[in-house]
Write a structure and sequence with these properties.
about 500 residues, alpha+beta, Transcription Regulator spoIIAA, Elongation Factor Tu (Ef-tu), domain 3, 6-stranded mixed sheet, 6-stranded antiparallel sheet, elongated
């Protein structure tokens, strides 16, 4: 019978060999693998080659000395030969085409024919004794599950308690990242923007102008024509700048050189500063002054001052100190309110404050009963977390605790012996701490020891634990006389 031989090259792989098989026309196909690259690595690879050969109507055979490939070929039912001569002289298994020729009707049998050819047979009933055994086995399995999972127990263990005290120096440092047993805790700082306003009553007095000076002036004509002097005409007195007076009513100076007319004027600057001696008002403001002369034959009088409350530098210093304290307090309150965890703000007399805006009303040069100051600033607030202090104290106490003892939950209480002191990223404070301790009892380990014990032995075991003063065992159902066999059915509590 004609045989087609495929001898893969060193660069060929499984895909290229499958492609070579697709061109095979012979009923027998030999894949020569002696001394060549490993093509077949797994059973799946070999089955893919065999399936491809069958698809083109050929029977696949291998020529190889590789023991692993030979084992895979035996498992896949593919014949293996040591040489090409043996493959040509040794009988092969029947090819797929021969199988189909020997059994031409095998693939033509439909599902309907298969169903019609099957004769249904009635199932033979089991003997009664065997059915009873199976029933009893089921009941026993259910009872075993109930025996394991139904009982449960609750155990309360009461132990003696002691008090542990410690004085510890806490060091809040910007360089610390976590609390440790030496008392080091992290120090934090946050910039908080706040705005406050406050006022103080003024303590100073100042003279405040009260009334304006009034006097009579005399205008003299320098020309032959009459001159009208309007009301509010400004005449000037002494000083630099000159005191200013305004005429109260309109007057007319008759024509002729040397003609005169009197008018009443009022000082525009209130207070005693407007009082001048006679013949000190000597000039007229404006273009009308080239036609007239002016003087005051009598002194200008009537301008008075009075004492009025006013702010002083000391008042302003007190006000600034109050506003600074309020900025610090407001920043601390704002920071505390915005934190999820409890924090302690370090109260500094002189924290870093950056003033953004300031407004003083009405000012030191004004008469007022109160000075009011509004400031907006950024305050740098240092703080530490209460949780960090508690963790540092617990770590320190655990380090000196007697073996077999443990701290009780949230029993830790501490008080500051000294206020925080320091600066530049490091603050120190002393605390006095106290907490309750009790013998260390691991509920999971106790539950493992108790499983399956009679109640009397279980109680004796519990009372024999170090530091245990009393215990109670409650088993459900009540009539059950021993501890559950499953440890997770035992709940151990140490109140």
């Amino acid at each position: 019978m004609k045989i087609h031989i495929i001898q893969p090259e060193p660069h060929d792989d499984l895909i290229s060999v499958l492609d070579m098989i697709s061109w095979t026309k012979s009923p027998r196909l030999i894949l020569d693998l002696t001394g060549r690259q490993r093509i077949i690595h797994t059973l799946v690879d070999l089955k893919r080659l065999d399936r491809k050969a069958r698809k083109v109507g050929a029977a696949l055979g291998l020529v190889t000395n590789n023991s692993e490939v030979i084992m895979l070929a035996k498992e896949a039912g593919v014949p293996v030969f040591p040489t090409l001569e043996k493959a040509d002289s040794t009988p092969w298994r029947k090819t797929l085409s021969h199988i189909q020729k020997d059994h031409p009707n095998r693939l033509k049998i439909g599902l309907k024919n298969l169903k019609s050819g099957v004769t249904p047979q009635k199932a033979k009933p089991l003997p009664d004794w065997l059915r009873i055994i199976f029933f009893l086995m089921g009941v026993a399995a259910i009872l075993c599950l109930a025996f394991l999972f139904t009982p449960r127990a609750e155990v309360l263990i009461f132990s003696s308690r002691a008090t542990q005290e410690l004085e510890l120096e806490i060091k809040a440092s910007a360089s610390s990242t976590n609390p440790d047993l030496a008392g080091n805790i992290p120090l934090y700082e946050q910039a908080v923007t706040v705005e406050v306003q406050d006022q103080v009553r003024t303590s100073g007095m100042r003279l405040v102008p009260k009334t304006n000076a009034i006097c009579q002036v005399e205008f003299s004509n320098l020309q032959n024509e009459a001159v009208v002097v309007p009301a509010t005409t400004i005449v000037l007195g002494p000083g630099e700048p000159a005191l200013r007076f305004a005429t109260i009513q309109e007057v007319t100076v008759a024509g002729g050189v040397g003609s005169t007319a009197g008018a009443e004027v009022k000082a525009l600057q209130p207070g005693e500063a407007g009082n001048v001696l006679e013949n000190q008002v000597t000039a007229i403001e404006g273009g009308i002054g080239v036609n007239l002369l002016v003087t005051n034959p009598q002194p200008c009088s009537g301008g008075t001052d009075e004492l009025s409350p006013a702010g002083t530098d000391s008042d302003l210093a007190v006000l600034r100190a109050k506003v600074k304290d309020q900025l610090i307090s407001a920043a601390a309150l704002t920071l505390t309110a915005n934190q999820e965890k409890e924090i302690v703000v370090i109260d500094l007399d002189d924290p870093v404050i950056e003033v953004l805006q300031t407004d003083l009303q009405p000012g030191l040069d004004m008469s007022t009963d109160f000075l009011q100051l509004r400031e907006k600033a950024v305050v740098h607030v240092p703080y530490y977390r209460s949780e960090d202090i508690r963790n540092a104290i617990n770590l320190s106490m655990d380090a000196i605790l007697e073996p077999g003892m443990a701290g009780i939950g949230d029993s830790l209480e501490y008080a500051m012996v000294s206020e925080p002191s320091g600066g530049d990223g490091l603050f120190r404070l002393n605390v006095h701490a106290i907490r309750e301790v009790k013998p260390r009892i691991e509920p999971a380990e106790v539950a493992l020891e108790l499983q399956g014990l009679p109640l009397s032995r279980a109680k004796a075991f519990l009372l024999g634990l170090p530091g245990v003063t009393d215990c109670t065992l409650t088993v459900f159902p009540r009539w059950w006389k021993q501890m559950p066999y499953l440890s997770f059915q035992i709940e151990v509590k140490t109140p």
